[in-house]
Amino acid sequence: MTWTSAFGRACGWLLDRIVHGLALTRISPNVLTFLGLVINIAAAFLFGHANAANADHMFFYAGLVIFGAGIFDMVDGRVARRINKVTVFGSFFDSVIDRYSDVVLFFGLLVYYGRINRFRYVVLVAFVMITSLMVSYTRARAEALIGQCKVGFMERPERVVLILLGALFNWAGVMAPVLWLLAVLSTITVVHRVVYTYQHTKHLAPLT
Fold this sequence. Notes:
Protein name: CDP-alcohol phosphatidyltransferase family protein
Subcellular location: Membrane
GO molecular function: phosphotransferase activity, for other substituted phosphate groups
Strand content: under 5%
CATH superfamily of the domain at 30-64 and 92-199: CDP-alcohol phosphotransferase transmembrane (TM) domain
Shape: globular
Transmembrane segments: 31-52, 58-75, 119-140, 160-183
CATH architecture of the domain at 30-64 and 92-199: Up-down Bundle
CATH class of the domain at 30-64 and 92-199: Mainly Alpha
Oligomer: single chain
GO cellular component, one term: membrane
């Protein structure tokens, strides 16, 4: 067994223990989903209250908080299945809260770059915020028409991982290239989904 597989097994075991413990409390999976948003709001608060002097520390703390929110994002669905509370509304609610969690983190970064007078990055973060929403919207709208549209790379897990890395390693200037990478890859994903949907709908009869 390699150390990577051992680490993966250990993480899987720990996650299963967390899910088991939460399942015993009979907590609503929707509450777990909402708690993830609350934690992300705390991370956005840390972003927004950073300044040029303390940004590295505040971003690092925000990264730790985002990691904590990610745990709730991973366990809510597992807990729902464990306690047999999987519902259509739960899936809808999870998607809605995910969009809010995305936006609130970018809003915190908007406030930060505005406070330190980096207008170019204010515009960049606003653009990334828009494209992140469009990545989700294009998939949802396409799947209402053609059933499935999972093409493209920049889904929410990838966005969260990149933002997490940017926050934890902001002392090395990682957040700036992370934002540019998000802008480019999210745009490519949106375009890919538009083209994919066009190819799969051009022979369909128009909607009435």
